Amino acid sequence: MPTISASGLAQLLGDWRDDGPALRALADRVRLLLLDGRVLSGSRLPAERELAAAVGVSRTTVAAAYARLRDSGHLRSVRGSGSVITLPTGSRSGSAEPLTAAGGLVNLTRAVLPAAPVLAGAARAAAEDLLAHLPGDGYELLGVPSLRAALAERYTARGLPTAPEEVLVTLGAQHAVGLLCRAFLAPGDRVLVESPGYPYAVDAARGVGGRPVAVPVTAGTGDTPGGWDEEALEDAFARTRPALAYLMPGFQNPTGAVMPPALRHRVVELARRYGTRLVVDETTNDLALDGPVPPPFPADAVHVGSAAKSLWGGLRIGWVRADAATVQHAAAHRTPWELGTPVLEQLVVARCLPQLDDVLVDRCGELRQRRDVLSAELAAALPEWDVPHVPGGLALWVRLPTATSSALALAAQRHGVLLTPGPRFGVDGAFERYLRLPFGADAGTLRTVVVPALARAWRDTGAVAPVSRRLEVIV
Ligand SMILES: Cc1ncc(COP(=O)(O)O)c(C=O)c1O
């Protein structure tokens, strides 16, 4: 059972106090850490006396906060193990929830879009294509040949010659990242990651015993382009000689930064020099809102891609593009956990790929409008927030004037908007001054629901009410 030390929890809690009673603020903040994934369900919390000392309140306050969490079903006492934080039974994963959920809740914990319209016809055609596969056994550990070939062809057309044997179809990009971590990391290995970055990639590396080494990435503001700190990158490579580096060079999640060509080549050089396996996650690369889609990263890297953003997350189709030996090695690490990717969904993606460029024109046009609406409405309603201009991707990485992202997320939920606070995107609890705001919801919802709710929540920050019982998936 994972255990959180009092000092570790105090660090995650950050500046948790608000204007209300301390017991309520403490309980709310612990619950938020559970719901956004910074504290794992099933973890043992520190003893009351230890936490009281670490956060500077009385033991009675901690006891009352724990009692409150117990009452709401988030904490249970396990004999011999103390207080264990847990998602209440009946807690919802929100899996079938649209972006605008019943009851007016808008889910901005996910940077997503609904399915591209092309999917309906592609699914019908794929059902026909499936007939040819039915005589086979259907276990596709590497991927169905037609999809591997179509993905290889797309990489080749975009300037990265690729053979079908160099493609491994996975259950989404997250699965691909997890598989690569299992295949190429040993406990104790250093893993270079971006900060802020995609939290589930860091979780995957940690899950196999990897030790994250964070390098900073910033969102552009005004005239200052955002991006990777080259010196910090070089220093991190030289100092830690990471076994693996995980980077998102095309519209990085959550900053939207794009890695310039010269830095891409420099990173390849560094990885070669220090014996680092370079993994580039290009899940959001196709969502170029102001210019052409960035070309694929140079060939030396292991590329991860996904149909989730350009077509639909519900397909659960992603892939790895690497040399054939790497593909085979990664595929060999599937079998203890699962036995391949469903055939029908692969056929749907194979049907969509020839039309993907047209799909992207529509999708990016829609996203561009939504980004512009959200940026303009935020500028008008919350001029004190620093809203970057992002050239692509699905989210704005907004800088707040105060370190109140978690309090704001709690307050926003009361006003019907679910948010992931900034610290979830940091490696060790930084970014309380930042908020990721996805712009996948339609323009009307952003204008009439999201921004007014954010403005109300911002005004309320410091006087927040208890949050309900939800588990959210961040994508
Ligand atoms: C950078 C990045 N990688 C991976 C994923 C997960 O992709 P998938 O749904 O294909 O598993 C996301 C989803 O937001 C993402 O932004």
From TrEMBL:
Gene3D superfamilies: Type I PLP-dependent aspartate aminotransferase-like (Major domain), Winged helix-like DNA-binding domain superfamily/Winged helix DNA-binding domain. SMART domains: HTH_GNTR (SM00345). Keywords: Aminotransferase, DNA-binding, Pyridoxal phosphate, Transcription, Transcription regulation, Transferase. This is PLP-dependent aminotransferase family protein. It comes from the Bacteria. GO terms for molecular function: transaminase activity. In the C-terminal section; belongs to the class-I pyridoxal-phosphate-dependent aminotransferase family. PROSITE patterns: HTH_GNTR. Residues 20-88 form the HTH gntR-type domain.
